[in-house]
Amino acid sequence: MQESIDRAKGLIESLPYMQEFRHKTVVIKYGGHAMVDENLKKQFALDVILMKQIGINPVIVHGGGPQINRLLDRLEIKPSYVQGMRVTDGETMSVVEMVLVGKVNKEIVGNINHCGGRAVGLSGRDGDLVCAEKMRVSKKNDESLADAPPELIDLGRVGRVTKINPEILQVLDREDFIPVIAPVGVGEDGQAFNINADLVAGAVAGELKAAKLILLTDVAGVQDKEGTLLRSLQQEELEGYIGNETIAGGMIPKVRCCADALSRGVAKTHIIDGRIEHAILLEIFTREGIGTEIV
Fold it and tell me: Were 105 and a residue from 28, 38, 121, 156 both cysteine, which residue would form a disulfide, CB within 3.0 to 4.6 Å?
């Protein structure tokens, strides 16, 4: 009996958060171990179904780097990276789109629907949802050539988001579907672009003026140099932490994605550990939350 009473108390404690986020949008970047472990995949599906059932509008943007690498390896295509970004020639772009849109996206949609939800898979090319242009990157020349301009690096069909057209997402929300978006954009020439999923999630959240942007990762959140979790950060603090290398490596683009989303009108952003069961619910429906919030 006491266990049942504790469950009821948990529901009551969640009530204010259910009321606060009802009819609001939460954008979730789905990636990492949560996309691989079979138990976590099921828990994720149940979490977003519950959110939709109580009136919250979840929008999912997923990654798929490991799955892309596995197929490239089978095809004997060696991946190449520059500044952490996959160089994407025409052949690689075909593989990227095949894996993200044709396999990973449909698997996520299938899991949600199998668990009783109503999900629809989308590519950023559907309805010109994610418009993109070629990403330009450069590197500094040798210091002895101080007057020389930076060297431009061609990453192929790697893109940056230029515009989000939210109409198709609004239609799906009205019909009570959960959108699941593969991070493939469309250029002015109609061709596909490979785009970092964090960047797509941030841009979608900004366009929808989401109440929350949640990035699922394989770490507890942003940590200081001693490994202590930083529970809350202000947007204006981020560059200082990057400068003193408290925030480094793969966490840099994630916090910058959060900062950009906040600048676009997102209320709160979160970097949380997707390896924890029901991580999304723990973040949204508990006072303590988990991971790091950036506001």
Answer: 121
In a domain, 162, yes or no: yes
pTM score above 0.90: yes
Q: Which residue has the tokens 């954009």?
A: 185
CATH number, domain of 191, equals 3.40.1160.10
The side-by-side arrangement of strands in the sheet containing 25-30 is 119-123, 178-182, 57-62, 25-30, 212-217, 268-273, 292-294, 232-233
What is the domain extent for residue 147? 21-294
pLDDT band at 107 (very low <50, low <70, confident <90, very high): very high
Beta-strand relationship, 268-273 and 292-294: antiparallel
Which secondary structure element, helix H or strand E, spans residue 59, and what is its range?
Answer: strand 57-62
Q: How far apart are the C-alpha atoms of 189 and 195, rounded to whole Å? A: 16
- H helices within 185-250, ranges in order? 197-208, 238-243
Q: How far apart are alpha carbons 212 and 60 in whole angstroms?
A: 12
pLDDT digits (tens, 9 = 90+) for 175-208: 999 999 999 999 999 999 999 999 999 999 999 9
